[in-house]
Amino acid sequence: MAEVEARTAAEAARARPLSPHLQIYKPMLTMMMSIAHRITGAALYFGMLLLAWWLVAAASGPNAYASVEWFMGSLLGQLILFGYTWALLHHMLGGVRHLIWDTLHGFEPAEREMLAVTTLVGSIALTLILWVVGYLVVGGPR
Amino acid sequence: MRNSQHMRTPIRRVRGLGSAHSGTSAFWHQRITSVAGIPLTIGLLLIIASLLGRSHAAVVQILGSPLVAIVMMLFIANAAYHMWIGMQEIILDYVHDDKWKLLSLIANTFFVFAVSIASVYAILKISFGV
């Protein structure tokens, strides 16, 4: 038993070759989109707190709801909601890109680049459209 | 793990080394919830757009109508599972210290349950008007 433990410890201590990490690669769009997919995912994770806060306030009554409305309508609140909208759309389009890859399509260099650009341009465009429509047609937060 | 062909003993499993053998199902469930997430996200955005600038009474009335409440709850349940898998993947990628890894995996589960059950409860309360 002791022999086994000693051997495993020695095995673990032996320096193993490591593959190079992110910093040695030249930044590329597809790589940035991969990182953005993870960051937006993590942001949306904590963003679910906002949704929960809003729903619980609506269930609690007009006073609680008014304070959520006040925060969401403030400059900080609007910035957070704008970022949340983009993160949601970007993560959704990035997810579609991953689903396309799951079918073994879109791996050629030009296709990868095109998908990355489409994800980025699409998420920014959709976010702007939603907010312009929200402000012009519905009138934004009142 | 009694296998007469190998010298391998269960000690590796006791130490928690090697694969957990649940990666494929996590991958697959992440794909199922991502497919479901597309129409549900569009539904959520439409619902929120229809609530912009409305009074509390109107918001409660719309959120409590069956179709809206069902879409909202499906979105929350689907997102809860999707984000639980996703955050677990992030933790396993970056947190290598056993103690912190265990604590953050537990915190992930607590967070997901707390946020999703609070949201679903709020929708049910609004729906049944209690």
What does this 3D model show about the protein?
- The complex is a heterodimer of chains A (142) and B (130).
- Chain A is mostly helical.
- In chain A, 80% of the residues lie in helices and 0% in strands.
- Chain A has helices at residues 2-13, 29-60, 62-73, 75-102, 109-138.
- The longest helix of chain A has 32 residues, at 29-60.
- Chain A is flat.
- The mean pLDDT of chain A is 89.
- With 130 residues, chain B is mostly helical.
- Chain B contains 5 helices and no strands.
- Chain B has helices at 11-15, 23-51, 56-63, 66-94, 98-128.
- The longest helix of chain B is centred in the last third of the chain and has 31 residues, at 98-128.
- Chain B is elongated and about 70 Å long.
- The chains are: A mainly alpha (142), B mainly alpha (130).
- The interface between A and B is medium-sized, with 34 and 36 residues.
